[in-house]
Amino acid sequence: MKYLKFISLFTFSILLFFKSYAYGGQQENLEREGPPPAGPYKLGFKELERAIKTEKKGKFKKAKIKFEKALNYFLEANAEDPANPDILNYLGLCSAKLGFDENAEVYYLLGLELDDQHNSIKYNLGVFYKNQNRISDTKKILSSLKNCGCKEYENLRMLIN
Fold first, then answer.
1. Domain locations in the chain as residue ranges
2. CATH number belonging to the domain at 40-160, selected among 3.30.1330.10, 1.25.40.10, 3.20.20.70, 1.10.10.60
3. pLDDT bracket for residue 126 (50, 70, 90)
4. Fewest C-beta in 10 Å: which of 8, 50, 92, 110?
5. Three-class HEC string of the chain
């Protein structure tokens, strides 16, 4: 039975090879339906979500691996779209989680330079400053969020108190 599965798989792979060779090595559609493969931004976001869930479960070594993978995807996405504050926010978050504090702060500040009203970046930067025991900087971020009427303000305010 094992040999039958092996022969079937081997035959299938040979057929794919010859089909590819017959078309000059180029297959445009591969008879596949659906959307194109996900880009690095989407892959990074999914990996970041997994990392956060894993971290919440207390599996820190596995979470670190996932944060590293997410960071690499976001670096690739940043190379494709360097002026995207969302990517810079996630680069900052991954860097902070991995202990690359200088990089994290730089990414957050670059993101705010591009969009000074980006509440998620402000919140993450405030949390970063809080974790660095830079309470006065955290309070500055909190005051910049005061009039937004957003959840980021409330969450950061509760974190400080």
1. 40-160
2. 1.25.40.10
3. very high
4. 8
5. CHHHHHHHHHHHHHHHHHHHHHCCCCCCCCCCCCCCCCCHHHHHHHHHHHHHHHHHCCCHHHHHHHHHHHHHHHHHHHHHCCCCHHHHHHHHHHHHHCCCHHHHHHHHHHHHHHCCCCHHHHHHHHHHHHHCCCHHHHHHHHHHHHHHCCHHHHHHHHHHC
